[in-house]
Amino acid sequence: MMTATALEMLSEAVAVVRKRGLDPQSFVDIMTGTMFGGRAHRIYGEKIITQNYRPGFGMPLALKDVRLALSEAESAGAPMPSVGVVHDRMITGIARGYAGLDWTALGLIAAEEAGLHVVPPVALD
Fold first, then answer.
1. How far, in Å, CA of 56 to CA of 76, rounded?
2. pLDDT band, very low/low/confident/very high, at 120 (cuts 50, 70, 90)
3. Which CATH number goes with the domain that contains 93?
4. Torsion-angle region of residue 47: left (phi > 0), alpha (psi -120 to 50) or beta?
5. Measuring CA to CA, which residue among 20, 6, 28, 16 is closest to residue 82?
6. What is the DSSP string of 21-90?
7. How many separate domains does the chain show?
8. What does the pLDDT average to over 1-7?
9. Would you tell me how many other CB atoms lie within 10 Å of the CB of residue 102?
10. What is the overall mean pLDDT for the chain?
11. From 13's CA, which of 4, 22, 27, 94 has a CA 20 to 30 Å away?
12. DSSP code of residue 121
């Protein structure tokens, strides 16, 4: 759930950078070289900017984990609004036919939502 949320935030930031016509690689390099140098940002940041959504940790499996986290949060009476956004984005991706893609396809969804011209990869449902 925390990694999925990090992927969503990174995806949104990369979409803004692309929308402004800037180099997403430079942005990710700066971010991963400073405050966001963890494995998730480095590994998945590269996949997002290269638009490499080949199957790995599939969207439905990631969605299951996000649902479990939201269920636990609800049971504890603790809201997790950012995880709710990730949940909705994953459902959007699955609805668009991206169930067979890696969860880094959150980058694809963020780019589409930002109005960027993207060529969706062939999903492997």
1. 31
2. low
3. 1.10.1040.10
4. alpha
5. 6
6. T--HHHHHHHHHTTTT-SHIIIIIHHHHHTT---SSSBHHHHHHHHHHHHHHHHHHT---HHHHHHHHHH
7. 1
8. 94
9. 22
10. 93
11. 94
12. P
Q: Angle, nearest 10°, between helix axes 2-19 and 59-76?
A: 120
- Contact between 95 and 13 under an 8 Å Cβ cutoff? The reply is no
User: Looking at residue 122, what is its pLDDT?
Assistant: 61
Q: Is residue 76 part of a domain?
A: yes
**3-state SS assignment for residue 116:** coil
Residue 80 phi/psi, 5° resolution? -135, 75
Question: Is position 119 within any domain?
Answer: no
Residue 125 has pLDDT above 60, yes or no: no
Domain that holds residue 102: 2-113
CB of 86 within 8 A of CB of 59? no
Residue 124 in domain:
no
Between these two residues, 39 and 66, which has the higher pLDDT value?
Answer: 66
